Amino acid sequence: MKVCLTGADGMLGHAIQKVFSDVEVIGFTIDTLDITNLDNTVKKIKRARPDFMIHAAAFTNVDLCESEPEKAYLVNGLGTRNVAMACEEINCPILYISTDYVFDGARSTPYNEWDEPNPASVYGLSKLMGERYVSALTNRFYIVRTSWLYGPDGNNFVDTIIRLLSEKESLKVVNDQRGSPTYTVDLARKIRELIGRGYGAYHITNTGSCTWYDFAVAIAAKKGIKKTISPITSEEFNRPAKRPAYSVLANTLLRLEGIREARHWEDALQEYIKYWR
Q: What letter does residue 249 receive in the DSSP assignment?
């Protein structure tokens, strides 16, 4: 099997390459493939002739998307359109990485795959644009929504908390946003299991949920750091982009497809800290 991967130099891209190390992976980075250029994208993907495409490249700076909406729509929306069109031309299935931020977070129970998206931010809207291009332009696709990613080889919340706790005597962390921290290695493993199963939209996260404050407290505890972490509200934190207050994803269709859910987020965090931090 030959797999093409966009976003190969990103945090998830590195994890996917490790999990798929036994097959041929053609990794595209921002320097080797400009997904915003349709002709260039079609040409390079047709030349690679993959059996499968994993599209993980994205403009993921949620706050910067608010001040640069056209870039967000270009990269996450039209860039995804271009990759989907290229895959359709060579009859290549595509797996698109999406996000919990396509939901507004107005509810208090986990979102299923068939729940209606309603993004509250430019980032969420741009990723939803990508979803809709994929489903409209290709017949063989997977849309994988995930959340709160962390892992080796990239900037992430876990590393940031550990660094800040080494620099400061106390931290304030948001306590009114709830989601499921997801370890990139676990996500990549489930993607590997999903390929070859029924097409459609899937939610893949580590199980369980917490707030960012709960997550920070768990990180400190597992690192043996004894410093003060205080809960604050999103309003107090005052970020440009609105985050969903509740964006826990139910991995319902994954289970129905016969794939076991990923382990609990605390177990995954323990492994990450033990081996990487």
A: B
